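Dear colleagues,

For the upcoming journal club I promised to circulate an example of a predicted protein-ligand complex. I picked one with T4K because it came up in last month's discussion. The inputs are reproduced below in full, followed by the predicted structure.
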Amino acid sequence: MVEPFEKPIYVTRPFLPPLADFTQGLQEIWSSEWLTNNGPVLQRFQKELCDYFNTSNVCLFNNGTLALQIALQGLQVSGEVITTPFTFVATTHALYWNKIRPVFVDIEPGHYTLDPARVEEAITPWTSAILAVHVYGYPCRLRELAEIARRHKLLLLYDAAHAFGVTVDGYSIGNYGDLSMFSFHATKLFHSIEGGMLMFSDPGQMKVFDYLKNFGFDGETEVVMPGTNAKMNEFQALMGLQVLGHMGGIISRRQQVDSVYRSRLKEVPGIHIPELPSGNVKFNHAYFPVEIDPERFGMDRDQLYTALKKYNVFTRRYFYPLVTDFACYRSLSVKDPLTKARQIAKRILTLPIYDSLELKDVNRICDLIAHICPSLVQAKSNSWPRSTNVVPPGQPVAL
Ligand code: T4K
C-alpha cells in the first residue's frame, strides 16, 4: 500500500536564504530608514543583476506583469501583436492593458514555443511586434524569429518570465530580441518575493521605463508622462540580492531532480517527457512538464492530477486552459486552429520541482505515478526500476 506524503508536496517552493542573512540585511534597511523609491539595496541589486547579465540595460519593477505592460507602453507598441496562447494569462493581459490586439498562433510540440512558420503567416499591415514566451525556460526559436522580425520590421519581445539563468551560446537569453521580461515571483527559481525585470538592447529606453514606473516624475516638480507606480521596494531587492548569491546551487539541485524524473519516468507507458534543450543551451530546470497520453497511460491527465492530490502531491496544469479559452478572451476571433497548443494543453502536467525537494521524495513521486498508472497495473510490469522502499507497480491503488 502506498502511503500519501505526510506534508503536501507542491509544484514549487521558494528558495529562502538563511534567516540570519536576511535579518542582517533587514538591519541595514532599519538603519537607513529607506524602504522604497530607488533605495540603496535596490541600487545594489540592480548593479549585481547587470553583472550577472553582463549588461547595463536592466530596469527593476514590483512584478513581471507591470514590467511587461510598461515595456509595451514605453516601446509604443500598438495594433496587433503575434503571441502564444500557451502561457500564463499575464502575457496576454499586458497586451490588453495597452489596447493591443493579441493574434494567437500555434506552438511547436517538443518545446512548446511559438512556431515561426505560423508567426510569419499571421503578419498583417497592423502587426507591430512579436511577443514570444520562453515557456518553462525553453528558448524560443531565436534565430528564426529574429529573421522574421528583421524582414518585416517588427519588434521582437520575449516574455522570459521562466527563463532566469538560461544561456544560449554562452549569452544570457535576455540578450536576444529587442527586450525580455523576467518575473521574480516567489514561484520562480529566482525570486525577490514579487518582482520583475526588463532587459533591453537600446540604452535609450532606460529613462522611459524609469519614468513610467515612477508616475512619470522627472525630478521633484515635473511629470513628463502619465506613468504608474511599479517600483520594486527595498525588501524585495534584499531578497533578490540574497537569492542571487545562491543561483548556482539552486539550478544544480533542480538539475538533479530533473535527472531522477527522467530516468524513472521514461519506463512509464504514456508519459512523454520533452527533451532537454540542445548542447548550446544552459538550462535552468524551472519546471518539469510531462504529457500524459490517456490511451497508453490508462487514464487522462486530469485523472492523474486528481489521483496524485489524494497522495498529497499537488501538480499543476500549467498552461491549461489556453489563454484563448478563458472567459475574458473567448469572444476573440482566432484564425489559427491552435491544433498543437490545444492537444498539449489537454495533456500537460507540471510535476513538483524545486531546490529543496529531496531526491527520495522525487523517487516517491515516481513510485506513486507508476502505482497509479492503470497500464502498469494491468501489465504487472517487472521492468519498473526500483528505488529503496519502492512499492511494486501493478498494485491496485486505493484512492
Ligand atoms: N508571464 C509568464 C509566462 C508567467 O508565467 C508569469 C507568472 C508572468 C508573465 C507574470 O509574472 P508576475 O507578475 O507573476 O511576476 C503562479 C505565479 O503567481 C505566477 O507568477 C506565475 N507566472 C505562474 C506560472 O504561477 P499560481 O496562481 O499558479 O501560483 P500559486 O499561488 O498557486 O503557487 C503555486 C504553488 O507554489 C503553490 O501551490 C505553493 C507554492 N508556493 C507559492 C507561493 C506564492 C509557495 O510554496 N510559496 C509561495 O509563497 O501563479
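Two points we might discuss: The chain has a mean pLDDT of 94. The first strand starts at residue 9 and ends at 10.

See you all on Thursday,
B. R.
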